[in-house]
């Protein structure tokens, strides 16, 4: 996932791996909209808006999110 | 043995679904907290009566799916796959947030496939006043049981729910329609031969989780492992595939149901988060909040403590005036009443602290703190979620340690558990309050209260110590396993005070019961050890003291004090103190402080009570408070004050670092499943305390 602050995109899918199921239960499903809200103070985590709710993931967890 | 007429009801749902509110609604004050047998996760349950039928309602930890990510999620999976577990439900009440239906129904679909009887509640419907019951008919296609629009706020359909429960027939089994139907019957048939359970989805879960499920006995384990290996069962891949297929089935139905809902308030949340999670202002706000809590603690803590202290003092005086002189009266006046007072005195601060911390959690702030500090905490071997434990520890380490169950990675969780007690808990406050006056005079510097600043320094020392030890442990303890952040940030919501008050009640209660027991018994034991001595040493000492008093022609008051002093010195407690005196003299302590250190090792809270006992038992010092009495004490054989700056600083530092809480050690043992870690923790904290005290005293004296 490579979004700049404020940018949105639709999710293609989440890469199969140890994060996949948890990310899906947090709403990262195909065709959901993901918006990059901001980075954490140290830049290591992202605050994301998925459709109409919010989650936070680490950069290395976000890498597994494949967007259009 | 399950009572045949008591129905086990499990409340299950995602975190933030309103499940706990429902639990409070159903059980009210009749809930009690204990532990799931064999595991460390708190179990909240309560028994209620509906139309003459008994229901034991258990609030299960919030879970996202039957593929767990943390120990409290595992507990749900373990129980739901283990029919012989005492909490194995007859009936499940599933609470789903109607605004997040697609995600909240994943677990519900898995529970459906396990064949449980389930009442599905579509919660938080109150935000859409004209929600029509026809809107969720489509859900009935896959969830055959009762579906109720619900609101924990307005109590919509609460009575309908109770009615459903009243009519629940445990023996009537409805037909099971699998939502996930891509079940490989061949493989699962093989598993079924090992488990003796026919439900194929049950067996699929066994295949996924046989490595740690309680249901899988050592006998079953290798057989299932064989099946998995021979079929080349790819655990993660199958989990992802099942999850995707379930969502494929649920999503269209969920969106049909939710299409008429009023939009949630996420724009309000987004605006607030612009400030709260701002890259610069966010952390500043957090520290300001912590400072604010600290200020409240410092200015408000002393008042109720003084009231309670004087209350119990008057009680003591009243009882001793009314009752005849005897050892029994002494036990009550000098042992039991101070013991109870010692517990009561802490209730206001603990309640206040938990009130604040629970409110922060309830409105949704703590998840933001987890997100902002994850990066920083990871550098110390901790996890973002550790911040909850570190902050709660300012109140009491015990619930703080229990809150670490949400941390997936064992090493991160272990380090959090080990360093959390270094954060100054509310039990250390009275020690700080009594001793700070001997180190820092009253007054202000640059507008700041000097003693308040010193207070803050002590807290900061604790925090620095916690982080430093964590860093050390990061390199010492073996790594392994996955570490995650992946956290949901719920919309900010108005706190429901009933929920907060129930949490506070629960925490205060657990403090009184767990720590209270120890404090009470230590006080009694201390009274006994200071009132009695070996042989007739005490009688002899008393005689000698009387003689000396006569020779020096002391007045009545001084005579009594001299006698009291002599008696304490020759009591069992005195002997114990003198025995360790050589070890603690380099720290600036004498045998009397030694006694306090010994009693404090069970529970810090007894420090002030012990001081009071040692310095005034049998004497006439009741008008003076403990600090005033301590100010009068002299270093043995000199005319210099006992509590000079060096000794006081040394004693303070000792209490900042020392592990003086048996209850905490017991909880650590429970959470880490062995005595190894509490012993290590006790050792390193004691060493840290001793060496720091030594250094401070030698430098400043």
Structure write-up:
The complex is a heterodimer of chains A (68) and B (701). Chain A has helices spanning 20-25, 59-62, and strands at residues 8-14, 33-39, 45-50, 53-58, 65-67. By secondary structure, chain A is mainly β. Chain A has one domain (8-67): Ferrous iron transport protein A (FeoA) (SH3 type barrels, Roll). In chain A, β2 and β3 form a beta hairpin. The termini of chain A are close together. The mean pLDDT of chain A is 93. Chain B has helices at residues 19-27, 71-80, 101-113, 158-166, 185-195, 200-209, 220-230, 235-258, 266-276, 281-322, 327-344, 347-363, 365-378, 386-392, 397-402, 410-419, 429-439, 450-476, 497-531, 537-551, 556-570, 572-584, 591-600, 606-616, 626-632, 645-657, 662-672, 676-700, and strands at 6-13, 31-35, 42-50, 53-59, 91-97, 117-123, 147-149, 444-445, 448-449, 487-489. In chain B, α22 (572-584) packs across α23 (591-600). In chain B, 47% of the residues are buried. Among the domains of chain B are: 6-166, 3-Layer(aba) Sandwich (Rossmann fold), CATH 3.40.50; 185-258, no CATH class; 529-700, no CATH class. Chain B has 28 helices and 10 strands. In chain B, the strands form 2 sheets. Chain B has a 7-stranded mixed β-sheet, with helices on both faces. Chain B has a two-stranded antiparallel ribbon with strand order 8-9. The longest helix of chain B has 42 residues, at 281-322. Helices cover 59% and strands 8% of the residues of chain B. Chain B is α/β, with parallel strands linked by helices and 701 residues long. The chains are: A mainly beta (68), B alpha/beta (701). At the A-B interface, α1, β2, β3 and β4 of A face α3, α8, α9, α13 and β10 of B. β4 (53-58) of chain A pairs antiparallel with β10 of chain B, so a sheet runs across the interface.
């Amino acid at each position: 996932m490579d979004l700049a602050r404020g940018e949105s995109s639709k999710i293609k899918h989440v890469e199969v791996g140890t994060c996949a199921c948890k990310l899906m239960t947090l709403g990262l499903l195909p065709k959901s909209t993901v918006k990059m809200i901001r980075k954490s103070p140290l830049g290591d985590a992202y605050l994301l808006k998925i459709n109409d709710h919010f989650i936070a993931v680490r950069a290395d967890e976000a890498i597994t999110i494949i967007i259009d | 043995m399950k009572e045949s007429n008591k129905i086990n009801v499990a409340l299950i749902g995602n975190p933030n679904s309103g499940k706990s509110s429902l639990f409070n609604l159903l059980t009210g004050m009749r809930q009690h907290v204990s532990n799931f047998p064999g595991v460390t996760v708190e179990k909240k349950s309560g028994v209620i009566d509906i139309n003459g039928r008994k229901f034991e309602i258990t609030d299960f930890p919030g879970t996202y799916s039957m593929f767990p990510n943390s120990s409290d999620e595992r507990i749900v999976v373990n129980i739901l796959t283990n029919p012989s577990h005492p909490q194995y439900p007859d009936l499940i009440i599933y609470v789903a947030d109607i605004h997040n239906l697609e995600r909240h129904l994943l677990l519900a679909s898995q529970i459906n496939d396990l064949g449980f009887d389930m009442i599905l509640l579509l919660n938080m419907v109150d935000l859409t006043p004209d929600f029509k019951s026809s809107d969720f008919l489509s859900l009935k296609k896959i969830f055959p049981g009762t579906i109720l629009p619900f609101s924990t706020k307005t109590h919509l359909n609460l009575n309908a729910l109770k009615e459903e429960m009243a009519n629940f027939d445990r023996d009537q089994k409805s037909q099971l329609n699998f939502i996930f139907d891509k079940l490989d019957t061949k493989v699962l048939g093989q598993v079924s031969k090992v488990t003796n359970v026919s439900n194929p989805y049950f067996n699929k879960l066994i295949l996924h989780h046989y490595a740690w499920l309680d249901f899988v006995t050592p006998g079953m384990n290798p057989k299932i492992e064989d099946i998995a290996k021979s079929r080349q069962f790819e655990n993660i891949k199958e989990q992802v595939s099942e999850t995707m297929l379930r969502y494929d089935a649920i999503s269209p139905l969920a969106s049909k149901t939710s299409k008429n809902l009023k939009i949630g308030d996420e724009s309000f949340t987004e605006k607030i988060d612009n400030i709260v999670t701002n890259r610069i202002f966010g952390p500043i706000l957090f520290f300001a909040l912590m400072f604010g809590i600290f200020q409240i603690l410092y200015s408000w803590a002393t008042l109720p403590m003084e009231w309670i202290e004087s209350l119990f003092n008057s009680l003591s005086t009243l009882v001793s005036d009314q009752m005849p002189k005897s050892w029994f009266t002494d036990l009550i006046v000098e042992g039991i009443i101070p013991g109870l007072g010692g517990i009561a005195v802490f209730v206001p601060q603990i309640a206040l602290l938990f009130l604040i911390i629970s409110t922060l959690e309830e409105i949704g702030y703590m998840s933001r703190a987890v997100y902002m500090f994850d990066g920083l905490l990871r550098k110390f071997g901790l996890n973002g979620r550790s911040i909850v434990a570190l902050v709660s520890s300012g109140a009491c380490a015990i619930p703080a340690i229990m809150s670490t169950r949400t941390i997936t990675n064992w090493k991160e969780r272990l380090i959090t558990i080990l360093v959390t007690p270094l954060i100054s808990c509310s039990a250390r406050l009275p020690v700080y309050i009594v001793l700070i006056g001997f180190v820092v005079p009253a007054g202000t510097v640059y507008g700041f209260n000097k003693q308040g600043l010193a207070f803050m320094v002590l807290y900061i020392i604790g925090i620095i110590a916690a982080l430093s030890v964590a860093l050390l442990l990061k390199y010492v303890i073996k790594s392994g396993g996955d570490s995650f952040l992946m956290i949901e940030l719920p919309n900010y919501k108005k706190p429901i005070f009933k929920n907060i008050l129930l949490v506070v009640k629960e925490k205060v209660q657990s403090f009184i019961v767990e720590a209270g027991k120890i404090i009470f018994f230590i006080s009694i034991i201390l009274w006994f050890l200071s009132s009695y001595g070996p042989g007739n040493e005490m009688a002899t000492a008393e005689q000698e003291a009387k003689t000396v008093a006569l020779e020096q022609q002391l007045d009545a008051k001084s005579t009594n004090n001299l006698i009291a002093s002599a008696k304490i010195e020759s009591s069992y407690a005195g002997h114990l103190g003198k025995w360790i005196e050589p070890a603690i003299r380099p720290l600036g302590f004498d045998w009397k402080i030694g006694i306090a250190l010994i009693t404090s090792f069970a529970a810090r809270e007894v420090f002030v009570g012990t001081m009071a006992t040692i310095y005034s038992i049998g004497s006439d010092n009741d008008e003076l408070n403990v600090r005033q009495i301590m100010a009068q004490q002299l270093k043995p054989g000199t005319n210099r004050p006992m509590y000079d700056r060096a000794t006081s600083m040394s004693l303070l530092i000792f209490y900042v670092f020392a592990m003086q809480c048996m209850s905490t050690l017991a909880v650590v043992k429970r959470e880490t499943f062995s005595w190894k870690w509490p012993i290590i923790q006790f050792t390193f904290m004691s060493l840290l305390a001793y060496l720091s005290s030594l250094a401070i005293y030698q430098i400043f004296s």
